[in-house]
Fold this sequence. Notes:
Low-confidence stretches of chain A: 1-42
Distance between the termini of chain A: 42 Å
Order of helices and strands of chain A: EEHHHHHEHEHEHEEHEHEHEHEHEHE
Helix content of chain A: 40-55%
Oligomer: homodimer
Strand content of chain A: 15-25%
Mean pLDDT of chain A: 89
Largest interface: A-B, 136 and 137 residues
Amino acid sequence: MNVRLRLRRNALSDPSNPADPTDPTLTSPGTARPEAVALPAPAATVTLTEVAAAAGVGESTASRVLRNHGSFSAATRERVLEAAARLGYVPNRIAGTLASAGSNLIGILIPSLTNIVFSDVLRGANAVIDAAGYQAVVGVTDYDPRREEALVTSMLAWRPAAMMLAGLEHSERTRLLLSASGARVAELLDLDGPGMDLVVGFSNEGTGEAAARHLLARGYRRIGYLGRDFARDIRAGKRYRGFVSTLAQAGLSLVDEEFLGSGSSVGAGRTGTQALLSRSPAIDALYFANDDMAIGGYFHCLASNIAVPERLALFGHNALDVGRFAPRPLSTVRTPRVSVGETGARLLLDGAPAQVVDLGFELIDGATS
Amino acid sequence: MNVRLRLRRNALSDPSNPADPTDPTLTSPGTARPEAVALPAPAATVTLTEVAAAAGVGESTASRVLRNHGSFSAATRERVLEAAARLGYVPNRIAGTLASAGSNLIGILIPSLTNIVFSDVLRGANAVIDAAGYQAVVGVTDYDPRREEALVTSMLAWRPAAMMLAGLEHSERTRLLLSASGARVAELLDLDGPGMDLVVGFSNEGTGEAAARHLLARGYRRIGYLGRDFARDIRAGKRYRGFVSTLAQAGLSLVDEEFLGSGSSVGAGRTGTQALLSRSPAIDALYFANDDMAIGGYFHCLASNIAVPERLALFGHNALDVGRFAPRPLSTVRTPRVSVGETGARLLLDGAPAQVVDLGFELIDGATS
DNA sequence: CTGAAAGCGCTAACAA
DNA sequence: TTGTTAGCGCTTTCAG
C-alpha cells in the first residue's frame, strides 16, 4: 500500500476538507515568489501610535502601560489596555529592540536534529529560555564548521542576547565574530579543551575511560570498537581516545575496529557488529560510539543467537530509553544532556561569570557486560 | 560510578582547562542579572554609517553595495567591501527589517522535541528554510493550546515571514492572531479537519484504517490497543478512531485497550503490553500508538518468550529505524515526516496558494504481523 | 552612479 | 503622571 502525493489543488474547492470561509488568508492565494527574501508585506498592522490615539494618550504613556514600566494612573492604564485589546495590537519587537538595544533572542547552534543528544540539549535550553521570556533561534550545522560560521554570522545579525554552541571546536572566524559581537557564549557537551566563555558539559574522554575501566574490571580483554567517522563527530573521537588510552595503560589495545559511513545508526550497529565478529571472532566485548549503534549490535546478537554478555559484551553511550528497556538493559553511560541545555541557558540568562561547569556522567552497569 | 556537579568556579584559574588568554570575553566575568529581560548591552558594534564614512561614500551607497542591490561602480564596491571587512561590519537585521518591512524569520511551533516525529519535521523544514536564507525560530508547545497561543503571540511580535504549526487544532484566539497578522501559515502532519491556509501532511485516520485492514486481512480477530492520553496527542486519537471504525465495519471491536500516562514510551510499551496480556490473554494482535511503544511491546515478548507474531502480532506507527533493524522488522506505517517539513516550508516560501497537500503514507509489512 | 532626507515603530530621556 | 522629542540602524524614495 502506497498512497503518495495525492495533491488537492485548493482547499476551498474541496468539499472533503471544509475550510473556514471567514478566514481572509484563505481567500488571497498570493503569487509565486522565486526570490526568497521577499515574502508578502504583512497586512497593515496596528501600531502603538494608533493605540495611543485610540486611548487618547501620548505614545510614551501607552508604551509604559503596555510594558508595565514607569508610572501611569489606573484610569489611563485601563483605557490603553482596552484600546490595545480592541484594536488587536501586537507589539513590534523589531522596533522595540532597535529602540532599546538588546533582543530577547537566543541563538542555538546544534550539529544535528537526528541525533537525540542534540534535541535533548535543545529541549533543556528551550525550556529555560522560554520560561524567561526569551526566544530560541535554532540553526543546524550538520557538523560542518563552515556552516556553523555562516549561521553565526546570520544569527549575529539579529543581535541575540546570547549564543549557545555545541562543542569547543569552531573556526577562527567564528570565534572572532562571537567575541566581537559582545554576546555571551555557552559551549555545550564537551569539557576537553579550552572554551570561550561559559562551558557546560562533561568530559567525553572521561566517559571513554570509564567505559574501558568497566570492561577491564569485568575481565574482558579482546575488545573491539564500532563507530563513525570522527571528523564528523569530534566528541565520539574524544571518547575513543579516552577508551583506547585506558586500554593502553592496561597493556592492551583494540583487537579490531570498524568505522561506518552515514545511514541509520541502528542499522550500522547491526551490520558493523556482524562484520567485526566475522573478521575477528575472538572479540569478547564491543564498545560502541553510542547507544543506537549498540542496540543495533544487540539486535544482531539476538538474531544470530549470540549470548550477551557471555559470548559478547556490549557497551554503549548515552543511556537512551530503548537500551534501558531492552530485554537485557544495555550497559552504557548516562549523559546529562537535558541539564546541559538547561544549565547553559540559565547561566547565560543569569549573567554568570565565564566558567567551566562539569555536570558529570553516570556509568550504567546494565546486563550486557 | 557517579561524577556529579563538579563545578569549577572560573575557567581562568583552572590550569586543567587552559583557556585562550587572548579571548576578551573570558576576562570580563560580568555580573549577576536576576531580571531576565536585561542582558548585557552588546559591545559597541560597527554601523553602516561608519562603514560608509570609512569608505568615503554615502550611507545609501554603502547599503546598496552591501546588499548587492541597485547600481554602483566597481570602484565604490571595492572600497565599501574593503571597509566593511576591515571594520568587521555585521549588518543589523533588526534595523534592516524595521526599515524595509518583512523579516527572514519563520516561526515553527511543535508540540515536543522528545518525539522524533517533530524533530524530523523540524529538520525538514529547517533545511529548506535555511537554504533559502531564512531563519527558524522554534517554540515547543508541550501539546498545550494555551502555550501555543502564547508562543504565537510572542513570535508574531517578531513579524515572521510565515508560521508553521503542528496539527489543525488551535485555540480560537490563535487562529485570530494568525489571520490578523497576515503571515502565511502552514499546518502540518494532519489532514483530518479544516485548515487555515496551507495544510501539509497525511491522514492519521487513514493510517489507523490501513493498520486495521492489514491486521484483519492477516486473520487477527482479538485485537488490543496500547496508547496514551488522546488529549495530549490528538493525532494518535485520530489513528485510533480510524482503526476502531475499520474494526467495526468488520463487526469487531477492541478486545482490550490501555492508556498509559507519561514517562518513557518504550517503557510504557513494555509494561503496558504485559498488563494487557495478563488481563486479556486471548489478545492475538496489538496496535500501538507509535513505534516506540511497539518496540517496548516487542521487548516484553522477547523477554517473556512470547512468539511474535505467532502468539502475538505487533503493529506500530512511524517506521523508526529501531523497528526496522530489530531481529524481526516491525510492522508499521511509514509517515513522510521530513517531507512534511520540507514541503510545508517550500510552499510557504514559494508563496503557493492555500491548499491541502496529502503526502500519503506507506504501510510497512514487517515480520511482526 | 550617488547622496540627502525621511521614515520604519518603538523606547528613553527630559520637561511639563 | 504625562507628553514631547530624539534617535536606534537601516532602507528607500527622490533629486542630482
